[in-house]
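fold-stage: in
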Amino acid sequence: MKTIPVEQFCISNNIPQFFIEDLFHYDLIKIIDIQSVKYIYCSEIPKIKKFTRLYYELEVNYQGIDIINHLLNQITNLKNEINVLQNTINFYE
């Protein structure tokens, strides 16, 4: 998996490093530590950008971001379940 140093990501996106660390402490993103350098997975970037907008533009706190993220994940899972059930119904029609 591709990674990017947290410091480099924060500089290029004009995001304070504490924000990324706080997201990690709330288990909203994953950070890996390699030789005392913190990295984020590139696959986490869309989530981080979404969380950044929620936090800075809508002033949603970390607990609110966690709840919103959980609810969005539930919606995605339910949509997938609906698709599976719809495909099963279509198969038997």
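fold-stage: in (second)
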Amino acid sequence: MLFSILFPKNPAMEKIISKITELTKEQWVANPGAVYPLIAELEEEEFVTGKWEDDIKRTKRIYSITDKGREELEQLKAIIKPKLGEAVEVLTELNSYLA
């Protein structure tokens, strides 16, 4: 999820956090303490790269997906998308019992 949400436009951390909050309809308000370790792990695995907007000030880091990250994203989509469909079916069925 993080790949597809965050990296089409090479965002900085504040944009990443804002997008997560928006997509979860504010059910999870992400904070840097939770997101930074995830991004650091993605960098370590070479799925993303981070570059300082200004190498001297080092106040804003811009992230972009690597080719390896794009490959991983496609593999994850192939696995997760069918599972999400199954989950929707189950939840819809359960919801019908509550009506």
